[in-house]
Amino acid sequence: xxxxxxxxxxLRVADHPALAAxxxxxxxxxCVYVLDEExxxxxxLGGAAKWWLNGSLTALGAALxxxxxxxxxxxxxxxxxxxxxxxxxxxxxxFWNRRYGGPERRLDAELKQAFRDDGLIVxxxxxxxxxxxxxxxxxQGTPFSVFTPFWRACMHAPEPRHPLPAPEKIExxxxxxxxxxxxxxxxxxPDWAAGLREAWSxxxxxxxxxxxxxxxDDLADxxxxxxxxxxxxxxxxxxxxxxxxxxxxxxxxxxxQRRVHGEGANRFRTELGWRxxxxxxxxxxxxxxxxxxxxxxxxxxxxxxxxxxxxxxEEGRTGVPLxxxxxxxxxxTGTMHNRVRMVVASFLTKNLLIxxxxxxxxxxxxxxxxxxxxxxxxxxxVAGSGADAAPYFRVFNPExxxxxxxxxxxxxxxxxxxxxxxxxxxxxxxxxxxxxxALAAYEHVKAAA
Length: 449
Ligand code: FAD
Prior knowledge:
By secondary structure, the protein is of the alpha/beta class. It is built from 18 helices and five strands.
């Protein structure tokens, strides 16, 4: 009886433990991806994410073709789809790599139990994090809430395993697939994805090329250059990691193999650590996208939403150059430099006093790397309500940030061509006054703590 491999956020054929296990089992393999927009709690993908997914599934399909197999596409509530695929194919085993979000874990656990009750082989594997969330604990056995000791504990844990090679060949099955085009993942009217196409190539081949290029050419400048949005000093691997086109183990061991060291390498490894931390925090606090991680922030008196201010922020028309540059980069390319993400998030939550959840949702819709952990985790980090967060009273001053990190104004000019002309708007808020108002509002949180 064939094996089913259910692909999720792991759109690759190398270092894919579930696929490796299915091949090892020796029967034909059904490789399936399910577009699930119906199961309760599963957050529907944003527009930029759908664009990426379309490219990534195309690339995965080609990779599987090359191994003699094919990618089967199905749409619907995942549990029902996988069950009917088992019935349709008479499969004897189902394999997948683990997910760590709350609703996903529930769904997977229920399905696993049901299949086991039916006598099927079901196995799930560690594939997308370097350390499984339940293995990294404080001395008291609780999850970490502060990054530095968390990462220190990770560094004392057994080293992440070596990546697995891609299978040489996969025994195919003849199972009907839906057509990717019928899923309409790409924008049409209007087609806003020209900038995304220019900026990105989804898929594992491009991901590995990027990793090689980064380690060879850019890592040495990473520690210095990573905060400069005008430079391309960072890896730009985040969407590839988000979709699992590249595993963190592959990144980890590529660094080992190349024997990269020094400040850049340490810094970069630490950033991978922040990715781990965000997922571990989500694992222990599944409501991270909707609920303040620090409960006392529930007392924060968000004023009534000013829709025009939110729109100006989304469209990059706030009159604050670094904020507008970032928001326009995001809209055009589906990404934004990390330093600028922090600045625009601080501006939204502190100068505009708009609830961080509004910003998180906009990023969810527009980022190609938006994921269920890093996005809410970082929003809460900036807002002050999150794990190991920046203290609330740290209000980024976008003008000082620009002077420090974009001293020649190169990044701002790239995205705000009309700067310095009459066309560019006046700032929609006074930075100093709004900062003071934010600090006054924060008193409520302090009182609730
Ligand atoms: P590099 O500097 O090359 O870092 C290497 C890798 O480390 C990244 O690819 C990423 O996987 C990881 N990483 C780096 N910084 C962080 C971080 N702070 N948190 C978690 N992982 C990190 N990152 C996402 O992957 N998805 C998101 O949805 C996301 N939303 C964010 C929202 C806000 C408000 C902020 C301030 C940051 C957010 N980040 C998010 C983190 C960070 O901005 C991006 O990971 C980074 O800009 C990606 O660029 P890079 O791959 O060149 O990063």
